[in-house]
Request: fold
Amino acid sequence: MSASRILGTEASTAHNHGHCVHQALEQAEHSCRQNGLRLTPIRRQVLELVWEGHHPVKAYDLIDALRGRGVRAGPPTVYRALDFLLKAGLIHRLDTVNAFIGCGAPGRPHAGLFFICQGCGDVVELDAPATARMIGAEAKGLGFQVVPQAVEILGRCRRCGDLRQQTALDANG
Ligand SMILES: [Zn+2]
Ligand SMILES: [Zn+2]
Ligand SMILES: [Zn+2]
Reply:
């Protein structure tokens, strides 16, 4: 089975993002209810802010954004909320960019494979079981125990790649 797209757009400008946010919050509420978890107002707000776009969001930006909404939440509160959302499978931490991204398939076990654009910051998440199996097999050969984690690939999305090519052409012409 090849990888299937969980989340992400070719161009995050070309869709109704309000729909993504709405769906994410509904999924989160459903998933929390099913698992007996409480999506408190602060957890919900942090989730909503992480979902502001299809790009990774840093913890300190969340603190600022909350302040902008008139919510006074110190770093420990925000980190606790993020920790809850991570454990509940509602968001992912992307270590390469030290930031967080909303998960498009909470409650469904999946091997996250992320393509992170260094141009515009857009992230595409795929469910890539074949990649996970390959890594698992290599690790087994080494007797290496893998902890569950996201596989992160940095690069340029189609849009940003095209843009760079275009700029190079312009410079030459
Ligand atoms: Zn969207
Ligand atoms: Zn995910
Ligand atoms: Zn890009």
Observations:
- Residues 17-34 form the longest helix (18 residues).
